[in-house]
Amino acid sequence: MADEIRRLIQVRTRKGARFKRDGFGKKSQLSDSWRKPRGQHNKQREQKKAKGKLPKPGFGSPLAVRGMHPSGFYEVLVYTVDDLEGLDAKTQAVRIAAKIGNRKRAGIQEKALSAGLKVLNARETTSSLKKTPAAPAKAKEEKPQKKEQKKTAKSKFRKKAKEAPKAKEEKKIPAKPVSKKTVKSEPVEEKPKKTQKPKAQKAKAEATPEKKPKKSSKPKSESAKETKTKPKTAPKPATKPRKKTSSGVKDNE
C-alpha cells in the first residue's frame, strides 16, 4: 500500500494545476488566490481562450492521497501537549503551531518524538542542544589535559625565570674593596728594562747625524758695528756718457 501511495502522490504532482483569479496581474491589490468569476461579461467565466482555465473534476488529485502531505502522512496541527493523545504514528504527522513559544514548543516536540510521531516543523531546542553525543564529550575531556600541560610548561618556565637571577647573583660576586694603606705598604715589583745590545747602539750612532756647533753671537755684533763706522761713499752721477761719433773727428768750436 505504501508503494501505491507514492505512485498516486507522483500522479498528483504531475498535474500541478494552479488556478488564478481573473485580473490578478492588472491590479496590485488583487492576489492570485482563486476566486470564481461571476461577472455578466467576464471572459474567464465564458471560457475564452488565454483567459485562464476553470477548476473541473479532471484536474483533481486521486481520492486516496487527497489532502496528504508529500511525505505520505496526514497533517495534524497541534497547540498543546494534550492534542498529541490519540494520534496514529503510521498515518499522521504533527505540525506545531507557529504562534507557540520556544519553551512550550520544546515540551510538545519532545513528547511527540518519544511517542514515535513525525514532527514536520521540528527545531533545535535548548534541551536537545544540552544532550551532546559521545564524540564531543571526548573532545571536552581532552581540552583540560591540554590546559594541564600548558600549566606545567608555564610553571617550569617560571621556575627557570626565578632561578636565573639567583645564578647570575652567585656568578657576579663583588670583590672586597682594598684600602689605600695596604696598596702603599705593598712594594711594587718593577720589571727590569731591557738593555740595548752594543750592535744596536752602534747602528743608532751611525744613523744619527753629528750636530754642527752654533755660531757665537759676538762676531755678528762686531760686524754690525763695522758697518756703522764705515764712511758712506758718494753716489754715482745719474748722467749717461756720450756716445762717440762714427768719424772720430772733433767738431769745430
- Rg value: 67 Å
Helix and strand sequence: HEEHEHHHHH
What separation lies between the terminal Cα atoms?
186 Å
What is the percentage of strand-forming residues?
Answer: under 5%
The SS-based structural class is: mainly alpha
Low-confidence stretches: none
Q: What does the average pLDDT come to?
A: 75
Compute the number of strand runs: 3
| Helix percent band | 25-40%
What general form does the structure show?
Answer: elongated
Strand order, main sheet: write it out: 1-2-3
Let me know the largest β-sheet: 3 strands, parallel
Tally the helices: 7
Structural commentary:
The chain is mainly alpha-helical. It has a domain at 69-133. Helices cover 39% and strands 5% of the residues. The protein is built from 7 helices and 3 strands. The chain has a 3-stranded parallel sheet with strand order 1-2-3, with helices on one face. It starts with a helix and ends in a 24-residue tail after the last helix. The model has no long low-confidence stretch (mean pLDDT 75).
Task: Summarize the SSE layout with pairings.
Elements: H1 2-15, E1 74-78, E2 92-96, H2 102-114, E3 118-119, H3 126-130, H4 134-171, H5 180-185, H6 198-207, H7 217-229
Parallel strand pairs: 1-2, 2-3
Quick structural overview:
By secondary structure, this protein is mostly helical.
Name a few traits of the molecule:
253 residues, mainly alpha, 3-stranded parallel sheet, elongated
